[in-house]
What does this fold into?
Amino acid sequence: MLPEDFEQAVQQDHRALDAFVRGDAEPKKRMYAKTDDVTLANPFGPPSRGWDQVAESLERAASLARDGEPVQFERISAYATQDMGYTLDIEHARFKVAGSNEMALVSLRATTIYRRVGGEWKCVHRQADPITSPRSPETVIDHTGVAGRARA
It folds into this structure.
């Protein structure tokens, strides 16, 4: 059983994503802890660390969405202690991406980690990507050579 205030915070975060797909990052930004250890890995860019970078990444990602409809969530898993918790959801949304006038269906596998900060549940990490179904092993191969350069 999840703490009631944790589930309420998750629901608030879900409502923030409804605003996000309409291009408004502010409710989602309010869900984050304003600390140096917060992280975000979204489908639109490299991982961000620290509040300033995360806020910038949220603004950029929200600027790519508009006219969205409420997000639907498929809960895969969730767990919480008194001070830390996580959710793993598949998020389904329809919105106009970037300059397109066509509504697009976007489904993301999203893991969100929350921590109690100053008595409130705050997001401290979010990772979202479009991997929601099985993929072939070839899809994980790095053809850019970046992985090899990182080891050198």
Summary: Helices lie at 4-20, 26-31, 51-63, 146-151. The chain has one domain: 4-151. The radius of gyration is 16 Å.
